[in-house]
Amino acid sequence: MELVPSSGGVFEVTVNGEKIYSKDETGLFPKAQEVIGKMEA
């Protein structure tokens, strides 16, 4: 896991280079279980 600092309130989760969640696209901050579920899929 790596945290990459950014600015502007952007929160994205990538796994092996594939974006699995983007707060910028949804407008919502995810719940931890939502991100974990997408990582397990």
UniProtKB/TrEMBL annotation:
The keyword Aminoacyl-tRNA synthetase does not apply. Signal peptide: none annotated. The keyword Repeat does not apply. It comes from the Bacteria. Keywords: Redox-active center. InterPro entries: Selenoprotein_Rdx-typ, Thioredoxin-like_sf. This is SelT/SelW/SelH family protein.
